[in-house]
Design brief:
Layout lengths: L1 E4 L2 E5 L6 E7 L1 H5 L12 H6 L13 H13 L4 H12 L3 H10 L1 H8 L3 H7 L1 H4 L6 E3 L7 H6 L8 E5 L15 H15 L6 E6 L6 H4 L15 H17 L4 E4 L4 H11 L5 E3 H21 L8 E4 L3 H9 L5 E5 L2 E2 L23 H8 L3 E4 L9 H5 L7 E4 L11 H7 L5 E2 L17 H11 L6 H13 L13 H18 L8 H11 L8 E7 L2
Parallel strand pairs: 3-15, 4-6, 5-6, 5-7, 7-8, 9-10, 9-12, 12-13, 13-14
Antiparallel strand pairs: 1-2, 2-3, 10-11
Length: 539
């Protein structure tokens, strides 16, 4: 018996083996509870026993009929933002139906519920807000963290996705609108890894914003003040992490879209004390590593023969650099090549600084002739014909990974044209017919493996084994398996991560067969269960 919310228990009938949901409420309260609402699909028996008779249209429909109605309305929407609002409104009414539709049409709907549309949704967050789906903390709440966590209605949180909204995708500081990213990543955990949405908590640390347009927007939902820094900021983060550890000691904390001045220091400062990771750093690094290894596997290239240029020296760029162990790296920011004589360099960039003289991107490329070109700069058009033509190798690897689509360094068509069709290309944003180097391939499986194994720490080795597992699943005709197979991918990665945790001494050893069965049993399938009443509250 598994409790999902106070009084809501997923049970199994000891006589028949049938799974069912025991519910403690009835009538309109149940119908208005999106996590467990079935809408017009409630059976006649459920309507009679749960006080729903007369509250719903008389005809009882199947989930498939409900899906057809949702898709019929979806088809009438004319913009991606309208499609996003339509799907989020469904999530606010009937979560099971939302996840069934998303999982069955993942490749079609992922660009709507996440990148690139989620970026626009974050920009417009205060204007399209309908219903809360997470917790907010301000610096003034540092002494009330336990109280606020206690306000959340669900009991057994396994994954916490937290942002401070400072660096949302390639769009910059969106303040409290960053909650859309935490919600979006939570959706991907539920869809990709099968972690029940009742066990996922989206969080926004509202520490202000330096975005002048938001501060002057009367519909902005965060506190309208400049971004808080220093001691007050750190006190809030420390109080939040400590509060999560007290309330849910085994929960995984995922840092998402923190600014460069905080991303590395928070990760490196907490990774040995909490079960946490930063997807922008470690997830991006792992999926880029997997894409490059898959490209080399297709072309018989050797890892040790590569020379990589990374354009962008922030969270993603340095995260990728950390993941490309053994490959000579040249990293560029807006000032040119990172070199050891730069006085203003950040500490996490120093291990990758070159001792050679600095220079511009094209001049250095003509001298070095890289075999790998990765863009995480957020600056469209950075990859020019001259730059790509300077690359070496029979099959140059070109990964323009900035997102959303408007920020990509070059289009896949340009990369292919400028290499006469020889390039191995993957992008960060979706482009038709081009492999997408999408973090969703990695982080749901890492999270699931950590949750199921009970790992109290997330290590770089877990991301390396996740990347290697993803490479082993790459198809003959592409770099990444299709995203429609995400549940199978997440399950394989979860098993490899759990094995890594055991090999590292982080958790006790377990039999592979038992562990795989345990992982499979934890993966929630969005289907309606029969409902049975518990102690009904009809108030």
């Amino acid at each position: 018996m598994h409790e999902l919310a106070p009084g809501f228990r997923e049970c199994r009938d000891p006589r028949t083996g049938e799974r069912y949901l025991e519910v403690p409420t009835a009538g309109k309260l149940l119908n208005d509870f999106p996590m467990f609402n079935k809408g017009t699909a409630f059976t006649q028996e459920e309507r009679d026993t749960l006080g729903l008779h007369g509250l719903l249209p008389p005809r009882i429909v199947t989930m498939q009929q409900q899906i057809e109605r949702v898709l019929d309305n979806y088809a009438a929407k004319t913009t991606d933002l309208e499609r996003y609002i339509h799907l989020m409104s469904l999530l606010d009414r009937n979560e099971t139906l939302f996840y069934r539709i998303l999982l069955d049409r993942l490749e079609q709907l992922l660009p709507i519920v996440y990148m690139p549309t989620v970026g626009l949704a974050c920009q417009r967050f205060g204007h399209i807000y309908r219903r809360n789906r997470g917790l907010y903390f301000t610096p003034e709440d540092a002494g009330r963290v336990d109280e606020i966590l206690g306000n959340w209605p669900f009991q057994e949180i396994q994954v916490v996705v937290v942002t401070d909204g400072q660096r949302i995708l390639g769009l910059g500081d969106l303040g409290a609108g960053g909650m859309g990213i935490s919600i979006g990543k939570g959706i991907l955990y539920a869809a990709g890894a099968g972690i029940h949405p009742a066990r996922i908590l989206p969080v926004c640390l509202d520490v202000g914003t330096d975005n002048a347009s938001l501060l002057s927007d009367p519909l902005y939902l965060g506190k309208p003040r400049p971004r808080v820094r220093g001691r007050k900021y750190d006190d809030l983060v420390e109080a939040f992490i400590a509060g999560v550890q007290r309330r849910w000691p085994s929960a995984l904390i995922q840092f998402e879209d923190f600014g460069i001045e905080n991303a590395f220091r928070l990760l490196d400062g907490h990774r040995t004390r909490a079960c946490c990771f930063n997807d922008d750093i470690q997830g991006t690094g792992a999926v880029a590593r997997a894409g490059i290894r898959a490209a080399l596997k297709k072309t018989d290239g050797r890892w040790e023969d590569q020379r990589a240029f990374i354009v962008g020296a922030g969270s993603a760029g340095i995260g990728i650099a950390r993941a490309l162990k053994g490959v000579p790296l040249w990293i560029f920011d807006s000032k040119g090549l990172l070199t050891t004589d730069r006085p203003e360099m950040r500490e996490f960039q120093r291990p990758f600084a070159r001792t050679e003289p600095g220079g511009g991107l094209l001049d250095t490329a003509r001298r070095v002739h890289p075999t790998i070109l990765i863009g995480v700069s957020g600056r469209p058009g950075m990859f020019t014909r001259e730059l790509i033509e300077s690359m070496a190798g029979s099959h140059p690897i070109v990964f323009p990974l900035s997102n959303p689509t408007s920020k990509t360094e070059c289009t896949p068509q340009q990369a292919m044209e400028w290499t006469n069709g020889r390039a191995m290309v993957a992008t960060g944003s979706p482009f038709p017919g081009t492999p997408q180097c999408n973090n969703m391939y990695v982080f749901p499986g890492v999270g699931l493996g950590a949750v199921v194994s009970g790992a109290r720490r997330i290590t770089d080795g877990m991301f390396e084994t996740a990347a290697d597992t993803l490479v082993s699943m790459s198809p003959e005709d592409g770099l990444f398996p299709p995203l429609r197979d995400i549940r199978r991918i997440a399950r394989r990665i979860a098993l490899s991560v759990a094995r890594n945790a055991m090999a590292s001494g982080l958790v006790p050893h377990a039999d592979d067969v038992d562990l795989d069965a345990k992982i499979a049993a934890r993966m929630w399938d969005p289907q309606y269960l029969p409902y049975r009443p518990a102690n009904i509250d009809r108030s």
